[in-house]
Every structure is written in structure tokens, then in C-alpha cells.
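Hi both,

Apologies for the delay on this - the queue was longer than expected. I finally got the adenosine-5'-triphosphate-bound model through. Below you'll find the protein sequence and the ligand SMILES exactly as submitted, and right after that the C-alpha cells for the full complex including the ligand.
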Amino acid sequence: MASQNRPQKPQVGKNHSFWQSWLHAWNGLKTVVIEERNMRTHLVLGAVALLVGWWCDLSVNQWLWLCLAIFLVMLCEINNTIAENICDLITGPHYHPLAKKVKDIAAGAVVFSAAFAVLVGVILFGPIIWHWLMVR
Ligand SMILES: Nc1ncnc2c1ncn2[C@@H]1O[C@H](COP(=O)(O)OP(=O)(O)OP(=O)(O)O)[C@@H](O)[C@H]1O
């Protein structure tokens, strides 16, 4: 019983099982969603794009492009969060030109992937929505 009252030692070593690795990875994803407003925005926009895709009855290939675009934006946002946290860990509250460089480049990657997503959205949905507007 005494061992139950002992405070848990924070883990710094390797994971002992696949389940433990998965749990930490899941916690990491939850952290990005909870802490990053931009990630929540990407999630909402991604869900809207999926709904519009369903409404437009996309082909398998079109679904693949749409999913690629959504996943790329989220992947870049996750990497952006990693870069921000590593910079904050190293610099603390202090300004450092390299931290600025890293954070700005990581943010640039998000914008780049978002531009790809917009392009995919225009190519996939543009003609369908245009046709829908014309026949009404
Ligand atoms: N330690 C630092 N040294 C230099 N510049 C910094 C530092 N911390 C932040 N910045 C600058 O402030 C910007 C915002 O940094 P912050 O870590 O607050 O990101 P954020 O507001 O979460 O950004 P995003 O909207 O990309 O998620 C960075 O892109 C960078 O230009």
C-alpha cells in the first residue's frame, strides 16, 4: 500500500511497451489541440472541407487529394508547435535571433501547406460549386 502513496517518478527513459508509446503520442496530439488555437482552426476548417467533399460526392482520387491537403496542414502545425516549444525551452523568455528564425520558418511552412490546401480546395470544389451556382 505504501507504494501507492509514493509520488510517481517522472519518466525520462525509453517507453516499455507499444501501448505506453501510443499513449504518450496521443497525449502529444491532445496537447497541440488544447494549446494551439491555430490547430483548432485547422481542425474546424478540415471538418468543413470533409463535409463539403461529402456533399460534392468526390471521387476516390479527389478524396485522397483533400485528405492529403488536410493532413499536411496539421502535420506542419504540429511541427510548428514542436519548433516553438524547443525554442522556448532553450531561450526561455529571452529574445534570440535564431529562435526568431526557427519560429518564423516553422510558421512559414504552415502558411505554405495552407496555400496548397487552398489550391486543392479551389481545384476540387471550384468547378462543382460554379456548376451548382449556374444551374440554380
Ligand atoms: N525567444 C524568441 N526570440 C526571438 N523571437 C521570438 C521569440 N519568441 C517568439 N518570437 C517571435 O514571435 C513570434 C510568435 O512566437 P510564439 O512562440 O508566440 O508563436 P505563436 O504566437 O504561437 O505563433 P503561431 O501563430 O505560428 O502559432 C515568432 O514567430 C517570432 O517571430
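Main takeaway for now: Residues 17-135 form a domain with the Helix Hairpins fold (CATH 1.10.287.3610).

I'll put the files on the shared drive as well.

H.
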